[in-house]
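For homework, think about our next protein:
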Amino acid sequence: MKYMLLIYGSEESWTEQERKDCMLESMAICDELEEQGKWIASSPLYPVSCATSLRIREGRREITDGPFAETTEQLGGYYIIDVENLDEAIAIAERLPPSKKGTVEIRPLFPLPTRNTTDHAEQ
């Protein structure tokens, strides 16, 4: 089953050296998971100050800088993994450095029906 691990935390809680160490440790975990066929994708996100939010209301587009909701913890990155079950996803999440300073939200990905890509290629 595929899971998305959403990484939340306070952007101010990391020093530059801690952020660098976190990325190196996280990349090593990703390499290990990739060798096992369990890693699909992951990436840290730029700071919330770089974010743009979009809402469509009554047919009108509303664009604002930053996140829409004010919270102390911001979404800072994600991992997508393919593992046997929730217990295995939790075991991976607890190894991730951000789990020590913030929150790792673990959510199963809803399986989508396969798309017929040959129809699109002919158009």
User: Anything to note?
Assistant: The first strand starts at residue 2 and ends at 9. The mean pLDDT is 89. Residues 26 and 106 are 16 Å apart (CA to CA). Residues 16-35 form the longest helix (20 residues).
